[in-house]
Amino acid sequence: MASFLEIRKPAVAPNTFSQDKIVLISLDEHLTRNDYCKKELTEDVFDTWIPTLSGNKSKTVKNKVLSIRVFVKYLNNMGNPSFLPDVPTSKSNYIPYIYSDDELLLLIHYADNINMGIKAHNASSPHIALKIPMILRILYGCGTRLEETMALQRKDVDFKADTIFLRKTKYSKERRIPMHEMLSQILERYCLAIGIMHIPEAYLFPGKKPDTHLTTRQMATWFTELLRLANIDQRTKNPGERGASLHCLRHVFVLKSMQQLEAAGHSIDINDLLLPTYLGHETLLDTDKYMRFSGAQIPESLEAFESFTAGLIPKVEAPYEDE
Fold this sequence. Notes:
It is built from 14 helices and 3 strands. The chain is mainly alpha-helical. Strands 1-2-3 form a 3-stranded antiparallel beta sheet, with no helix packed on it. A hairpin with a 4-residue loop joins strand 1 and strand 2. The longest helix is centred in the N-terminal third of the chain and has 20 residues. It is elongated, with a radius of gyration of 25 Å. The chain starts with a helix and ends in a 15-residue tail after the last helix.
């Protein structure tokens, strides 16, 4: 394992190397507990180790097995024939928190009045009382990812065309997206207020140090305080359970976009074509993950869906006992 990691370190990104090391430590501890000392890894080893990962999300388990498969290939190349485990399937059971309109108004209210609700508001970076409400409006109004939003620069905003150009994106999906003219006006006033209107290379949300931007962690910390002030999703969560977050605003954007398109008379097929492109997704399956909502949160949308699908799915009668 040590020899593999020595070869692996200069060949991959630091995060990948760190993940590989953590996974190998987990496997090594499992082998030690079971007094396994051979240099060949058998199918039985993986049959007993992989179930120990069951406390993780299915996607996490998949990534860990993928890391181990690279190590197994190394063992095979070194003359230690080992079993190559199959890649487990992953599925997402994540249900986003869908903010109600009243909750959204509360969040924006406390963001706009951040000086009253949060002390030492300039601790993390200057103009923080202006940045937080502006970031919140972009996330909600444009459905952008938090990382994409934090990396925006003044040159990425076209106030004449009311568009934002996203450069640093997931999957390298650069794209230009429209924004509502009212949001464009607010953003223009914001740029004037913090003095970056005529500085193309300036970050929209500069950090405390020069040439840096506000980090996603800093914004998440501020948002946690906004949730507390608005008394939104303050329940105690189980380990690994997720609740209201900044990313949920992207899910709200998708839901409201669908509702708006359907209200305008566009078909579902058009929605399928527009949303993946706008959101920067690679496939329709990526967008499908954003279509999962709790029925308790949006009953009117489920009622509309049930009405739309009426008669498409036939009822199946239970068989008689003697059949």
